[in-house]
Amino acid sequence: MATKIQLRRDSAANWAGANPVLAAGEAGVELDTLRMKLGDGVTAWNSLAYTTSGGTGSVGGVTVSGTASAGQTLVASSGSSASWATPSAGAISGVTVSGTPVAGQSLVATSSGSAAWSTPAATNVNGVTVSGTPTVGQALIATAPGAATWQTPSTAPSGAASGDLSGNYPAPTVAKVNGVTVSGVPTAGQVLQASTGTAATWVTPSGTTPDATTLVKGVVQLAGDLAGTAALPAVAKVNGVAVTGVPAAGQAIVATGAAAATWAAVATAASPAFTGVPTAPTAAPGANSTQVATTAYVDAADTLKANLASPTFTGTPAAPTAAADTNTTQVASTAFVLGQAASVAPLVDGTAAVGTSTRYARQDHVHPTDTTRQIALTPTARTAAYTAVHGEYVRADATGGAFTVTLPAAPGVGATVVVRKTDATANIVTVAPSAAGTIDGDANATITARWAGATFTCVTANTWEITSLTGTRS
């Protein structure tokens, strides 16, 4: 099996734009400059140094070094070497140059100290005939003694390969691995196995399951209606119809299209629960059997029957009386309703609860009086400013002048004070909370009429509400 080895390669501009990090020892070649860099696994391309300062070629036996930049020319440094250099204005190494070149022209010496651009009669370099027209990056390469042509230099090796490689460069074949000859063409899953100390071939590893046949168990490719793995196949289709969804108890596969189906609930044979608008054949008039009766049959048989949906009964319809405490959609007879009346006295004390009983209270039921929750008020007569205490009934007499009754300081929730004006004068009795409290959201309350009064109850810290009112207040 032939093996081709190629280095990573691209133009200098693309290398600079991508700026990758080459692996340690990995080579990268610029196709347009023929320069190469070796990676170290850390440094990006633009920071790597080239392996050489430039390409090296030969023109007519003169070694050319360096890489040319725009406007540079070859300048001889000795009788056998030259390099690219930027010429001084009008002169090259002391030779005065005249004229402006056009494409295809070259410098031709006109005397020992001068030269001019001219189109040569014949392409010749130091007696070597040059053929072809160069493109960017090409160099003159000798093809025979006295002859050369423009070619793209190649860093790839040439000639016959050796060692573990066979064939010729630049496309040799890997024929051996560490001196062991490899034979055969592999298939998927095969591995190289040594047959002798110097030879190996591609084989299927022992223990690998072969393909299944009608006689031998083996690997099966799942296709058609099957999916999953050979060890755990799944039936994804039924006769090409894709089945989706996960079934619940009692569901069946129901087609949703020509090539699709899903699991859906269907009616059971025993006590089916239909949904939607089920239909059935209509029995002949007068039929008396277990056949399903359609609405058409029922309407035709007796239009005097009450409708199933929102029936309107007349006369005195009767129905079976359900057992006590039944809680279903069964019809409730009058006997059932009266039987649900409670037979115990209503409660008066305890913790509030919604309750779970199905019994109802009678219209004339009476709750017992809860004397444990009555507030024992202490009546006191006051004729001047006074601070009340919880549970006090203040009888305010403003005959001698208006005054203020202050509610208890730092009251507990539920604290209660009753204030009532007992005189007939126009003097006002003001009720105010201590500190910065409020009464029904106001700063205070006033009582202006005789026998008018109110019950003040603390609902939160120093926040009071009027829970009962006698007469008027403002």
Structure description:
The chain is 4% helix and 33% strand. With 474 residues, it is mainly β. Among the domains are: 8-47, no CATH class; 125-155, no CATH class; 157-185 and 192-203, no CATH class; 376-470, Jelly Rolls (Sandwich). A six-stranded mixed beta sheet has the order 30-32-34-38-39-36, with no helix packed on it. Strands 4-5-7-6 form a four-stranded mixed beta sheet, with no helix packed on it. The chain is elongated and about 145 Å long. The protein starts with 7 loop residues before the first strand and ends with a strand. The mean pLDDT is 81.
Overall pLDDT: 81
Strand content: 25-35%
General shape? elongated
- Please tell me how large the radius of gyration is: 57 Å
Classify the fold: give the CATH topology of the domain at 376-470: Jelly Rolls
Secondary-structure content class: mainly beta
Distance between the termini: 111 Å
* Helix proportion: under 10%
Q: What top-tier CATH class of the domain at 376-470 fits best?
A: Mainly Beta
Describe the structure using short key phrases:
474 residues, mainly beta, 4-stranded mixed sheet, elongated, single chain, 6-stranded mixed sheet
What does the secondary structure layout of this molecule look like, with pairings?
Elements: E1 8-10, H1 12-18, E2 27-30, E3 36-38, E4 57-59, E5 62-65, E6 73-76, E7 81-85, E8 91-92, E9 95-98, E10 106-111, E11 114-118, E12 124-125, E13 128-131, E14 139-144, E15 147-151, E16 159-160, E17 165-166, E18 168-169, E19 173-174, E20 176-177, E21 180-183, E22 191-194, E23 199-203, E24 226-228, E25 233-235, E26 237-238, E27 241-244, E28 251-257, E29 260-265, H2 295-301, H3 334-339, E30 378-382, E31 386-387, E32 392-396, E33 403-406, E34 416-421, E35 429-432, E36 438-439, E37 445-447, E38 453-460, E39 463-470
Parallel strand pairs: 1-2, 5-7, 9-11, 13-15, 21-23, 27-29, 30-32, 31-33, 32-34, 33-35, 36-39
Antiparallel strand pairs: 2-3, 4-5, 6-7, 8-9, 10-11, 12-13, 14-15, 16-18, 17-19, 20-21, 22-23, 24-25, 26-27, 28-29, 34-38, 35-37, 38-39
